[in-house]
Design a protein that fits this description.
Elements: H1 2-31, H2 39-74, H3 80-115, H4 121-153
Helix pairs in contact: 1-2, 1-4, 2-3, 3-4
Length: 162
């Protein structure tokens, strides 16, 4: 039962990351083709709200996975595979916490400075660099969560001949 819940959490987390990437690309792409002024600012505000909401989903999924793995370790499940899964979950949760607790709030806080008339090229360049760091962090997190999903889907206790 707990493994099923953990597998579902990993799948929801991975699927959410993929969907949020698609939504971001679509939101910015569509708004740039409209007649609205400051399409990037509007798209940024929409995506900031989406990320704030998705952060709650990530926290729940990471919490479920972390709790499940901690219980498994405390119950004595300490094979190489269990340790490897623990490392993957710890890495994914750590990256997610950096994103949720630092990256998203900072991006949200910087957005008003980007849309103001006084915003200069240096401010925009600093934001773009920070945003690229956030994107790379999300990409790394996605790879860890993908690895978790694949590891959990691999048959337990059997060697599989490919």
């Amino acid at each position: 039962m707990m493994r099923t819940l953990a597998s579902a959490a990993a799948g929801v987390w991975l699927g959410g990351m993929i969907v949020i990437a698609i939504v971001a690309s679509t939101t910015f792409g569509v708004l740039r083709t409209t007649d609205v002024s400051h399409p990037n600012t509007i798209a940024g505000k929409v995506m900031a709200k989406n990320f704030e909401r998705f952060d709650r989903v990530q926290l729940a999924c990471g919490g479920i996975l972390g709790t499940w793995q901690a219980v498994a370790l405390l119950a004595g499940q300490r094979s190489k595979r269990d340790i490897g899964r623990t490392v993957l979950i710890a890495a994914a949760v750590t990256l997610m916490l950096v994103s949720v607790l630092y990256m998203t709030p900072k991006i949200v806080a910087l957005q008003p400075t980007l849309s103001s008339a006084e915003s200069d090229a240096a401010v925009k360049a600093a934001f773009d660099e920070f945003h690229q760091t956030a994107v790379r962090l999300s990409q790394a997190s996605l790879l860890f969560v993908l690895a978790i999903v694949l590891e959990m889907a691999w048959p337990q206790g059997k060697k599989v001949n490919l």
